[in-house]
Give the backbone structure.
Amino acid sequence: MGKTARELAEALGLHLEGDGNVLLRGVAAPERAGPHELIYLDAEKYAARAQASAALCAIVPEAAPLPGKTLLRCTKPKAAFARAAALLLEPPLIAAGIHSTALIAASARISRGVAVGPYAVVEEDAFLGEGAQLGAHCVVGRGSWIGSGCRLHPRVTLYPGVRLGDRVEVHAGAVLGADGFGYSYSDGRHWKFPQIGIVEIGDDVEIGANATIDRGSLGDTRIAGGVKLDNLVHVAHNVEIGAHTVIAAQTGISGSCVLGHHVLLGGQVGMGEHCTIEDGAIAGGQAGILNGKTIRSGQTVWGTPARPLAKFKEQYAWLGRLPELAERLKRLERQILKP
Amino acid sequence: MGKTARELAEALGLHLEGDGNVLLRGVAAPERAGPHELIYLDAEKYAARAQASAALCAIVPEAAPLPGKTLLRCTKPKAAFARAAALLLEPPLIAAGIHSTALIAASARISRGVAVGPYAVVEEDAFLGEGAQLGAHCVVGRGSWIGSGCRLHPRVTLYPGVRLGDRVEVHAGAVLGADGFGYSYSDGRHWKFPQIGIVEIGDDVEIGANATIDRGSLGDTRIAGGVKLDNLVHVAHNVEIGAHTVIAAQTGISGSCVLGHHVLLGGQVGMGEHCTIEDGAIAGGQAGILNGKTIRSGQTVWGTPARPLAKFKEQYAWLGRLPELAERLKRLERQILKP
Amino acid sequence: MGKTARELAEALGLHLEGDGNVLLRGVAAPERAGPHELIYLDAEKYAARAQASAALCAIVPEAAPLPGKTLLRCTKPKAAFARAAALLLEPPLIAAGIHSTALIAASARISRGVAVGPYAVVEEDAFLGEGAQLGAHCVVGRGSWIGSGCRLHPRVTLYPGVRLGDRVEVHAGAVLGADGFGYSYSDGRHWKFPQIGIVEIGDDVEIGANATIDRGSLGDTRIAGGVKLDNLVHVAHNVEIGAHTVIAAQTGISGSCVLGHHVLLGGQVGMGEHCTIEDGAIAGGQAGILNGKTIRSGQTVWGTPARPLAKFKEQYAWLGRLPELAERLKRLERQILKP
């Protein structure tokens, strides 16, 4: 690969300033960059760091000066840099060709350009879309569907009937489609509730290492396109997550929660069952959202139980003022209640 | 498989109303059910939903009307439905027969009807009970014991010396018997404390995907029969968990805690070392139980540090009233302290 | 193996009292010990338990009496016991020799005494140091470096370019080097930020089961020597962790945090991005450290948002006193505001 600064500018709609023929072969942090590696500058205060770089070309905000370098100006340099990187860097190969030790059921349908790593297992009636790559030790259960361009890193496990859209990336150790945690108590023990739904994942979803997404019980678990789930996230049975929602590491979502699109959950957030998080709502790290609660669109919540951020901050400030309030109360008492 | 409504009624002690010859071949949600799939109705408010279903037969509470359908009446419809599902549905096959790529040590004892999936590894002196199924890539360490009817989904790892009772189900990616996290600090570094105990799991336990249960250090880690652990739960060395206790996702239990039977821990609960949770106690989601604490039988706690739920709620309510209290204080001050 | 009490005393600098010829072949808890298994006594109050043991030899504090046994006295019996165990017990073998099903790239460099378990995959240009043991189903990505004496339990996954120092122990299911969770939002979707750094782990590090350590984005993720990470810990991209820091289970560290040496994080701690935890600082279980915060050297913090422990305790105590304060306020009001 490799593109000129001009080619990048045209592909991404950036404003080119300086020598458009500079060849770019990769991306790097300013300190590590060679001449042909693209860097970016997010805020003017980092300009000296960028200036000192060996890189010949930088993506920069509208106003930043950076004399002597080829500049690609735009309003969101970090996003442009991310997109430029996708054009400059081939994603690392997870597998090449179908390894001789991969076990692929006769009834599985394998599209063109599929690669399957060593010791991977693809069960009956599974479908692997064009150019999909499966790493070593992946298990694709009966009747699963893997869309075009999916990338499953080593030892991803899909239980039977899991459906991935196109260009889904799943990191090592993630488990999709395990039984939901549903029991009904009677006669002193817990009877397992049937877990016979499926998991359906949209296009362009990324799922972190060792994350777990359970299958639906009688319904399905559904994750829409563009969703990003970090490592060790847990998504329970029958949850629905809207498009482009982002969920940071170790967050857990209980059964039957519904999240809108463009929701943002910090790390270690916990959600009880049957919560509703409307579009664009935000929950800060470690927030605890009670069973059945609704977080309104655009709202930001924090704390356990989760409450509007402003309220949390106000309460927290009052907590800090308690010694002073007590002192004032005591003073009044001294005045009033003297014997 | 397939059973008539009458057969189900007899097997489960339900009161049959209507045509007992209706044949049932599965279970479903009302909206998805075909005529021969059993549905259930938990509360009368959902009656319209059940009435509109194509299903011919429903499990219903004592009083619910549902004209035109065969009804199986009982006091706990959801539990009865779960038990009916277990009679109607064969659990999905994890493996069939012993795959030619499974590596089974010569000294391992394999009972009748055992199935072992591709690339699984069973080490020396392990025992696999009658009808046990092991998925692809499972590893059963030296001297482990797998009881009858156990179901290990793909890539479950048992370190040496782990013992499972009968009918234990372990989901993909769970790790049983890893070394406990025990060190002793001296001379500027942490010396690993010996982790030479075992893990012992009772009958009918279910363990979620990517959960981790550490082996004992000098003693053992013990989980009694009927316990249910959700995904990503962590159980440290030397923990003891009593029968039929239920622990939701991402909860972590530190070393040497003792939990009674029928305890209920919500998701993301954290327990310090050497805690005691007595029979039937409940900890709400994200509760944090301090080192060495005891939660009494029947008590419900919440918050960090965990306290009785009523106290938590009261404190939380007071927190919300602080602005008002401060306002009242100010008013008094204005009256009393005027110059 | 097997050592006499005298040999142990000399190797560890303990004060021998009694018969130095007692042969020791292992370690155990007092109740389980046979005559030739070493026990220890941490505090005098447990002396009766130790006295009743069949063990012939015990490591004990300076003053403890334990008539009839061979005693090894020192100031830190537990640490001495841990070190003695390391001398008496051979760590359990993870693999012996190179299994015929292990797939090792021709360009990988394999040092003397390396053992690789069944179905493990070692990719091109990887290096395995002297005596390293890799369990079944491990995956060692292209160009990774595994130092001497490393122990990788079954199905550890190293993405390409992960570097482990010497004597690193990694438990089953851990994933090192997965892509960091970095995106830049623009035009309604999240663009993946390049994740092209590496993971570098120092000597004598131990990493728990199903833990995840992400690779750096443009920089690297670095964990220094002697660090201990418990199960299900999450370390994000570009994090740096100083020597001998200990992190308990399920703790999550967001991108670009810097932790000093000898830091101690309890379980389920959450850290926002770009935090700094100075040397020797402590965060209690479930503490939540906000983005960009600094915890000073030697400080102990707790709560969310994390604050000094003394402050947390004080605030918590005030919270408990609110009903009383309100009562006192009411009493004043009655006096002052009577009609």
DSSP finds four helices and 40 strands in chain C. The domain at 103-308 of chain C is CATH 2.160.10.10 (UDP N-Acetylglucosamine Acyltransferase; domain 1). The longest helix of chain C spans residues 309-336. Chain C touches chain A through 57 residues (CB under 8 Å).
